[in-house]
Amino acid sequence: MARLAARQFAWSLAAAWGLAGGAGVLSAQESDCGDRASLRIRIVDDDGSAPVPNAVVVVRWTETERARRPVREVVGADGRLVLCAPRDATQATLWSEYGNFSSEETVVVIVAGMSHDITLMQRSGRIRTGRLMGHVRDAITDDPVVAATVSVPDRLRVAETDRRGRFVLSGVPVGMQELNVRHIGYAPLSYVLQVSPGLTTDVEIGMVPAPVEMEPIVATVTRSRRLEVKGFYERRHWSELVGTGTFYTAEDIDRRRPVEISHMIADESGIRLQCNARRTDCRLVNTRYSSGVAGACSLSFYVDGLPTRGIPLDDVVRPNEIAGIEIYKGLSSGPAEFPPSRCGLVAVWTK
């Protein structure tokens, strides 16, 4: 009962934090991005007749000179948003999300100094398509395979991997689909997988050079819709590129089977569970900044975006209730979705 009360108290605390940006954000009335391109985005319902306020726009910048964190921004009450593109971006893939629904993806070729008008239609009825997103690598060298074609049968649009071997294929009909991957110098690959309505399926593909006698390597996993909407996978993607945080999914937690989730977090390098002599007060601390119990540098904790306000994490959520965990160990590594924390922070998302 005490645990339930503590959880209800933590979740009842009001807090709202801004969403992460990767480019300049202007109001719907502004459009001056100087010599940069601007994206004038409008979100409408599936009839195209009414704006959808407070929808989230997700933008992936592609073909840039360096890896850039995807943008997640909320549109205004008029369903509009203006973004200034990075100077080195040549293409953008974007879609909108609202609750459990999303729009189709749109790919825009960016021209410097131009204003690009984009309308995204938010689907509210039965979802009949899903999305495939993944990496294509050489199965022997593990190098990315660039310009490989990725498709499913009976579709006119074909995705092509970028210079990091990544691809996105949206609007794929739900159900069992045959994924085809082709590239000169590699054995052609065909793989049957399940596409779930409205969800993204991550695909890791290892292509085999044509003269080599071995089976291709394919691994798939369907993303949690809740974590995708909350930006968990976008932040994990960015972290893998620059090394800013540690991420665990429900599957990772099931494999570890911790009695308390604090025990699993304490296994991270630089973090440990520090208790007083009677073990009546235990806290997760960043050992880099801590000196004894009195000088402990305690991590900040958030559950579903809300701060726990000093309530022990183990009293708020159980391991089997968690969909994902994000761990950041320093002031500079934390995401923009949460206030800066010198000691680091832990963000927990429930199922």
Can you describe this structure?
The chain is mainly beta. It is built from six helices and 24 strands. The chain has helices spanning 2-12, 225-229, 232-242, 250-256, 261-266, 313-316, and strands at 24-26, 38-44, 56-62, 71-74, 80-84, 91-98, 101-102, 106-109, 115-121, 129-138, 149-151, 159-160, 166-173, 175-182, 189-195, 200-207, 217-222, 246-249, 271-275, 282-286, 300-303, 306-307, 322-328, 345-350. The protein folds into three domains: 18-121, Sandwich (Immunoglobulin-like), CATH 2.60.40.1120; 129-223, Immunoglobulin-like; 228-350, TonB-dependent receptor, plug domain (Ferric Hydroxamate Uptake Protein, Chain A, domain 1), CATH 2.170.130. The longest helix is centred in the first third of the chain and has 11 residues, at 2-12.
| Low-pLDDT windows of residues | 1-22
Output the number of helix runs. 6
Proportion of residues in helical segments: 10-25%
By CATH, the superfamily of the largest domain comes out as TonB-dependent receptor, plug domain
Residue-averaged pLDDT: 82
CATH topology annotation of the largest domain: Ferric Hydroxamate Uptake Protein, Chain A, domain 1
In angstroms, what separates the terminal alpha carbons?
21 Å
How many structural domains are formed by the residues?
3
- Radius of gyration, CA atoms, in whole angstroms: 22 Å
The beta-strand count equals 24
Name the CATH architecture of the largest domain: Beta Complex
Strand content: 35-45%
> Which structural class matches the secondary elements?
mainly beta
Q: Describe the main β-sheet briefly.
A: 5 strands, antiparallel
CATH class of the largest domain: Mainly Beta
General shape: globular
Order of helices and strands: HEEEEEEEEEEEEEEEEEHHEHHEEEEHEE
Oligomer: single chain
